[in-house]
Amino acid sequence: MSLFGKKPATPTEKRPDGLDRLPPGQYLTQKWPVLSYEQTPKQLPANWRLKVTGLVENPLELTWDEFLALPRTTLTGDIHCVTTWSRYNNTWEGVHIREILQRAKPLPTAKFVMAHSWTGYTTNLPLEKLDDDDVMIVIKHDGQDITPEHGGPVRLLVPKLYFYKSAKWLYGLEFMEQDRPGFWEQRGYSNSADPWKEERYW
What we know:
Layout: E1 27-28, E2 50-54, E3 60-62, H1 64-68, E4 73-80, E5 85-96, H2 97-104, E6 112-117, E7 122-126, H3 127-130, E8 136-141, E9 144-145, E10 155-157, E11 170-176
Parallel strand pairs: 1-5, 2-11
Antiparallel strand pairs: 2-3, 4-5, 5-8, 6-7, 6-11, 8-9, 8-10
């Protein structure tokens, strides 16, 4: 057993689409390693707003209380880090992304989204990857409030992509016509970040 609780994935499980549940090059851990480039913020900023901007019909700016008042969803799924660990059966609670999309109404010209953290971190993804059944803005993990080192109290969850696409300390979603790279994407990480294609780096 390694520091991260490393263990082989046997027997191989399949996803409903026929792909292996564990992406190639990944190992399983029961722990949740902490990996961040920026300094971990101690708490939610006093002026925090969830800002939805750019190419949307209805720009949004939700206070923390307004965000918490939105309908909640609970989902269980897997996460995969670009550094090769995967963790199965994470239970998340938060606001489904479609609650936000239905209110903001992205324009037909909106094809990409930039997620912004209040630390200055950014990550980009196609709108079609954001608008998915398992994408959420989450506040709880396995029944507990998400801790600051894991992106709490509020982070994006895009579990079908490597976890650097699930921005910690979420502050805003910017809808764009043209794609542009986020923080790690500017530094050599894959723009598409598909774990089953091992799209880790450029």
